[in-house]
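Input (structure):
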C-alpha cells in the first residue's frame, strides 16, 4: 500500500482522516515542479496574450493573402447590424451614442465596411470623408504592393454611391461590392432606398433580430442575477452561521504530486499547441478540418489526470484527492453547482460592467484595448463543424479538464499551505491569465475561478464546480450560436 495514501472507505465518497498527511512526493520534486510551472506558465500565458493581441491588431499582409470575402457573423458585422437597427428604430442620434463603427476596424476592408455604416448612422457626408481617408491609405500602401487593387475600386464605387446615389454604379462594381463585403455591400447599394423598399427592410431586419436576441438575453440574465443575489445573501448568512461546513480537507504541507500534475498539464498544453500548428500547416485540410485536428489533440490532455498513478498513488486515493467523487450524491452536487452559479452571477455581471467601462475609457487611445475571443470569431463565421467542435470543447472538455487541473490538482496542492480565500484567489488569477485575453479582460475569469474554487472548498467533490463551469460555457455557446443565427 502507498505509504502516503490516506485511508478511504469502500464507498470512497466519505473519507476518514485520522490526521492530515502530505500528498505523495518529495521536496526535490516539488521544487522542480514549481520551477517548471513558473517557466511554462509564463511561456504559455505570454504566447496566448501575444496571439490575442496579434489577432486583434490584424497587421497588413502581402498582396493576395488578405481574405476579401466577408466573414458572415463576425463581431464587427454583428455590432454594425445592431447600430443600423438602432438607427432605424430610435434615430441616428441614439445610434451615434454607440460609438464610431471605425473604432473596431483594423484592416482596410473592415474600415471600408465601417464607412458604409457611418453612411447609415452619421449620413453620406461622413461616409465620404472616411472613404477619402481610406483611399489615401490604400494608395500609399498599394505602391508597396500590400493592398489588393479591388479595394481601391470599391472605395471609388462607394464614393459615387454616397455622392450621386446608388444608381451611379451598375454591373461589375455592384457585384464586386456584394461579393467582397456581403451584408455591408447590400446596405451600401440600398442606402438611399425608401423606407418601404422590401430589399432594404430585409437588410435592416437582420439587425433587428440581433437586437431582439441581445435584449432577450440581457433580460433573462438580469432576472437570473436578481435570483442569484437572493441566493448569495442567503448562502452568506448560512455560512456566517456555521450552517455550511466545508467538506474539503486540505493535506499537510510537503507533497508534490499534484503540483507535478499541473506542471505536466502546462507542458502538454504547450506541446499540443505547437504540434497542432505544425500538423495543420502540413496536412491538406480545410479550416474546419484543421480545427478538428487541434481539438482531438486537446482532448488528449485529459491523460494528465493519470500522473498520480504513475507516481505510485492508488486510483481510489487519486480519485478522492482530485474530487472525482459522488460527494453527497451526484444530483445534489449538480444542484449545488446550479445554485452556486446563480449566486455568482451578480459579481460576474459587475465584473463585466467594470471591463466595459475600462474599455470605453481607454478605447480612444491609439492602440487601445479591444476584446478578442477566437472562439466567438470562429464560431460566428465558421460552418457547422466549427460549432460542434467548439461546443464539445467549451461545454465538455473545459469543465472537466480545467477543473481537474486547476481546482482538482493545483488547488489541492496550494491549499496545503494557504487559507482557502488566498488559495482560491491565487488559482483564480492563474486560471484567468491562462486564457490569454489580456489583463484588462481577466476580471470576469477571476470571478469565475474564485467561485469554482469556493465550490470545491464547500463541497469537496468536483461535480459542483464542473457543473458551474459547464453552465457558464453552455450559456456563452448558446448566445454565440443565437447571435450567429440572427
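Output (sequence):
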Amino acid at each position: 500500500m502507498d505509504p502516503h495514501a490516506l485511508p478511504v472507505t469502500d464507498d470512497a465518497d466519505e473519507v476518514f482522516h485520522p490526521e492530515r498527511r502530505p500528498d505523495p512526493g518529495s521536496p526535490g520534486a516539488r521544487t522542480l515542479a514549481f520551477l517548471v510551472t513558473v517557466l511554462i506558465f509564463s511561456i504559455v500565458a505570454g504566447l496566448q496574450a501575444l496571439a490575442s493581441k496579434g489577432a486583434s491588431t490584424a497587421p497588413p499582409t502581402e498582396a493576395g493573402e488578405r481574405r476579401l470575402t466577408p466573414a458572415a457573423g463576425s463581431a464587427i458585422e454583428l455590432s454594425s447590424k445592431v447600430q443600423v437597427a438602432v438607427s432605424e428604430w430610435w434615430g441616428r442620434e441614439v445610434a451615434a451614442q454607440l460609438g464610431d463603427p471605425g473604432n473596431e476596424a483594423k484592416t482596410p476592408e473592415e474600415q471600408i465596411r465601417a464607412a458604409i455604416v457611418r453612411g447609415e448612422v452619421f449620413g453620406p457626408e461622413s461616409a465620404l470623408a472616411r472613404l477619402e481617408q481610406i483611399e489615401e491609405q490604400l494608395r500609399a500602401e498599394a505602391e508597396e504592393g500590400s493592398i489588393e487593387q479591388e479595394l481601391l475600386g470599391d472605395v471609388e464605387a462607394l464614393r459615387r454611391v454616397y455622392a450621386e446615389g446608388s444608381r451611379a454604379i451598375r454591373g461589375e462594381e455592384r457585384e464586386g461590392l456584394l461579393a467582397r463585403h456581403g451584408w455591408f455591400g447590400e446596405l451600401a447599394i440600398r442606402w438611399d432606398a425608401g423606407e418601404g423598399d422590401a430589399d432594404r427592410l430585409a437588410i435592416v431586419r437582420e439587425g433587428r433580430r440581433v437586437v431582439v436576441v441581445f435584449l432577450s438575453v440581457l433580460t433573462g440574465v438580469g432576472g437570473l442575477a436578481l435570483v442569484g443575489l437572493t441566493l448569495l445573501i442567503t448562502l452568506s448568512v448560512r455560512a456566517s452561521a456555521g450552517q455550511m461546513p466545508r467538506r474539503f480537507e486540505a493535506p499537510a504541507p510537503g507533497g508534490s504530486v499534484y503540483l507535478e500534475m499541473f506542471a505536466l498539464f502546462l507542458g502538454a498544453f504547450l506541446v499540443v499547441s505547437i504540434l497542432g500548428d505544425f500538423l495543420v500547416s502540413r496536412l491538406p485540410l480545410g479550416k474546419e478540418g484543421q480545427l478538428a485536428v487541434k481539438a482531438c489533440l486537446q482532448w488528449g490532455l485529459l491523460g494528465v489526470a493519470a500522473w498520480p498513478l504513475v507516481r505510485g498513488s492508488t486510483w481510489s486515493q487519486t480519485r478522492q484527492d482530485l474530487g472525482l467523487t459522488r460527494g453527497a450524491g451526484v444530483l445534489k452536487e449538480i444542484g449545488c453547482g446550479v445554485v452556486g452559479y446563480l449566486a455568482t452571477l451578480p459579481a460576474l455581471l459587475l465584473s463585466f460592467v467594470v471591463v466595459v467601462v475600462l474599455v470605453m475609457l481607454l478605447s480612444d487611445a491609439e492602440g487601445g484595448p479591444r476584446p478578442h475571443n477566437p472562439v466567438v470569431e470562429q464560431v460566428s463565421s465558421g460552418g457547422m463543424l466549427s460549432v460542434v467542435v467548439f461546443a464539445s470543447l467549451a461545454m465538455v472538455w473545459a469543465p472537466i479538464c480545467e477543473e481537474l487541473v486547476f481546482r482538482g490538482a493545483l488547488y489541492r496542492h496550494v491549499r496545503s499551505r494557504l487559507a482557502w480565500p488566498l488559495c482560491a484567489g491565487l488559482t483564480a488569477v492563474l486560471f484567468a491569465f491562462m486564457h490569454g485575453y489580456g489583463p484588462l479582460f481577466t476580471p470576469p475569469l477571476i470571478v469565475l475561478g474564485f467561485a469554482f474554487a469556493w465550490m470545491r472548498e464547500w463541497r469537496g467533490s468536483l461535480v459542483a464546480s464542473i457543473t458551474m463551469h459547464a453552465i457558464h460555457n453552455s450559456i456563452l455557446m448558446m448566445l454565440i450560436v443565437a447571435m450567429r443565427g440572427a
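Notes: Residues 1-18, 55-67 have pLDDT under 50 and may be disordered. The CA atoms of residues 44 and 79 lie 31 Å apart.
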